[in-house]
Each structure stands twice: as C-alpha cells, then as structure tokens.
Amino acid sequence: MLCRCRHGYFHVVNNDYTHWEMYAIGGSANPTINSQGNRFVAPNIRFSKEVTKHEDAPESEWKRWNWRSSGDLLLNGAFFTPSGGAQSSSYAKASSLGAKPSSLVGPLTVGSGALNCRKGSRC
Asked: Which of 14-18, 45-49, 84-88 has the lowest mean pLDDT?
C-alpha cells in the first residue's frame, strides 16, 4: 500500500508497508500527515529507503509542511523525514483513531490484502 496525499489532513495508522519502489508516503500541495504506529520495511535498494516523498515542491516549501511520525517501526534502513514546525492543532484534526503499537502491525494485518471474490458469490 502506498499513500497518494494532496490537500487536507491524513492520519496514516497501523499499516504494513513493504516492497515500495521509491517511497511509501508521498504528498504535494501542503498536506498534514500524521504517521502513527506503522511498520515500514525498506526494500533492499540502496536509494529507496526513505519513507516520505515531498512531490512538486522545492525543499524551502515542503520544510513547512506538517509531517510527523510517532511510534512507527522503521526497518531495513527505512527513514521518515519529518517537516513543519512544532506540534500543531493540525495533528488533532488528522487523528481519526487511536493507534495500536507498531509491534502489533503483523497480527493486525495478517488477513489483509485483495479479496478473492468470484462473480455470483459473496465475498
């Protein structure tokens, strides 16, 4: 799962990110992103370890965007680049639910994935 974020508030919580090619969470147009309790396992590609990608903006602009990581598990060299000022009320708006500890992401996502549905039968 990769997250395409533009305007607005995003609370990315308790997901399992593996096998990304360039980044796991990207954004443009000044979104507020609150990443909490996720597990990020970077691929074995030297230049694909960064979790975040600030799209369509120079560093002088995206450094002001509010992106935070709290309680995330970063493995195999994965790293999250936070930005913005001190904790703001934007994060309260972006928090839709309480995150579980990142150590529980495996059990929480074990049954996730694409549904195996067939026409004419219930999923």
From this structure: 84-88
For the chain, the distance separating the N- and C-terminal CA atoms, rounded to the nearest angstrom, is: 21
Tell me phi and psi for residue 73, to 5 degrees: -100, 115
Neighbours of 89 (CB within 10 A): 8
The secondary structure of residue 90, as a DSSP letter, is H
From 11, 5, 81, 1, select the one nearest 41 (Cα to Cα): 1
The 10s digit of each residue's pLDDT in 47-67 is 999 999 988 889 999 999 999
Cα torsion angle, 82, 85, 87, 92, sign: negative
> Tell me, what DSSP letter sits at residue 97?
S
